[in-house]
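Tutorial, part two.
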Amino acid sequence: MSRLLLVKFSSMGDLIHALPAVTDAVNAIPNLQLDWVVEEAFQAIPSWHPGVNHCHVIGLRRWKKALLRRDHRREIGAFIKQVRHTPYDTVLDAQGLMKSALTARLCAPATPLHGPSKSWAREPLACHLYHQPHPVTKPDHVITQLRQLMALTLGYSLPTSAADFGIVRDRLPDRPAWWLISGDKQETPYLIFLHGAGWTSKAWPEPYWLDLAKQLGQMHKMPILLPWGSAEEKQRALRIAAAEKWCRVLPKMDMQQVAALIADATAVIGLDSGFGHLAAALNTPHVTLYGATNPDYSGVAGQDGVLLRSKRTCAPCMKRVCPLPAEQQGINPPPCFETLPPQAVVQAITQAMEANHDA
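Running the prediction step on this input gives:
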């Protein structure tokens, strides 16, 4: 049996991007035991893939806020001891950061450590910690790059097949309390608006969401679910729901519950976010809107979706906040979304839903 330790514990979207590489690896090496070091907030994601044997849960985001706390030091020691208990043949840092490379070396100091070369690593200094850095073709989509990195690490030929995220629906929980959505009609179809975005430059203007809700509510007459993660997102969801009777503001839900709803949705409209990438990975019909970020590198890669990108010359700027002066941003910032009005989204989601129905 070959044992691989995969180190990738960053964001939700980054973890989803790595799933096709896991599918490739377990298909190429049937006896592979693949364990994954994952941040505690996202530990459910690897468990959705049957090719992941075990998750080593790290609390780095929490620990680094107070590394000298006695209980944190005890947790860190227990984590390292737990990982070292398994004799791995190979360790792969698929993150390319100093924190991930150091974690990999601490967890398996005597095991060959692989990672991306300086041309791709987000922090090239991390490459000095690798026993075997691998060059990855650029420019290319991050999913393809991770598939290349896994193939080079384990020594098999990169598959030419489409990316397979490998998520098994039965590994997701059941949909949360259905009465919150549609009373006792368990089969009622529904849409989801993933209106949250980590960067203000990724946020589709709120008036557009209001207009879209009215148009889709009148067209399809089905519930439009509005999940939220922060107080700001909740207030936006409440304002959207106040404008359209078909909208439902969901209660506070964890990642697993939202994932279950996305898996069974009729369609999803979202932004460049972790849940947007999850909708694609689950093959839920979806439309994803890109403004400030680059879809060529990290665009949502689903078979049943439509990706809409800004047509402004300044996009993608890759800035968390729109860099243009306030007087140039108009009444609905960020201005890069002016080329993606609600009517364009209505047409795209209709196209995605019809394509899924025909299939």
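The mean pLDDT is 90. In part three we will examine how such features are distributed along the chain.
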